């Protein structure tokens, strides 16, 4: 268990529901806990910048700054390469996949990390102009059929799946895949 390991520091994150957060119990048990919120950053570079936060615990700030600066420069150079791509040449990108445990296909908000990542790469998010998705940072659930109808002909698909290692695993999650 975490208590048996006697960590000098535990990095964790917070759920939106207090009844499933473990960090208060860990703090109460004397475990030094630090909450990292990189996953809620809406921009790819914002997420990458958390390397600086982590570096503080290792006294490696200078190295983290150098790594981040190089990544930020490379990212910006790639964004510039796609910035003048005409709309008709932008590939459509289907993000995520249907999950049977939530009975939904979660499409990221157009202003989320994934939405910005797709836009920065010169793509167009499938359902990105839907009023539930446009201008949103949160993912929105859609029925399988809605996403299938709008995203079947997408140029690229980045399925979000857990525990999938093969195409057979993926199809086994839902035969419609």
Describe the structure.
The protein is of the alpha/beta class. Helix content is 37%, strand content 14%. It has 8 helices and 8 strands, in the order H-E-H-E-H-H-H-E-E-E-H-E-E-H-E-H. The chain has helices at 2-5, 23-28, 44-48, 50-55, 61-82, 113-120, 144-151, 167-173, and strands spanning 10-12, 33-35, 92-95, 98-99, 104-107, 124-125, 140-142, 156-158. The strands form 3 sheets. A 3-stranded parallel beta sheet has the order 6-3-8, covered by helices on one side. It has a 3-stranded antiparallel beta sheet with strand order 4-5-7. Strands 1-2 form a two-stranded parallel sheet. A hairpin with a 4-residue loop joins strand 4 (98-99) and strand 5. The model has no long low-confidence stretch (mean pLDDT 90).
């Amino acid at each position: 268990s975490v208590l048996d390991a006697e960590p000098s520091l535990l990095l964790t994150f917070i759920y939106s529901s207090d009844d499933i957060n473990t960090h208060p119990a860990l703090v109460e048990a004397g475990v030094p806990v630090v909450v990292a919120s990189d996953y809620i950053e809406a921009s790819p570079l914002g997420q990458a910048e958390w390397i600086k936060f982590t570096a503080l615990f290792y006294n490696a700030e200078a190295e983290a700054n150098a790594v981040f600066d190089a990544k930020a420069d490379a990212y910006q150079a790639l964004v510039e390469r796609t910035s003048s791509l005409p709309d008709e040449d932008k590939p459509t990108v289907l993000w995520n996949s249907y999950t049977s445990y939530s009975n939904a296909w979660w499409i990221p908000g157009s202003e989320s990390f994934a939405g910005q990542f797709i836009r920065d790469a010169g793509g167009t998010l499938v359902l990105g102009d839907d009023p539930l998705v446009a201008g949103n940072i949160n993912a929105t659930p859609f029925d399988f059929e809605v996403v299938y109808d709008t995203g079947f002909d997408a140029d690229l698909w980045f399925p979000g799946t857990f525990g999938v290692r093969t195409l057979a695993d993926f199809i086994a999650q839902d035969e419609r895949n």
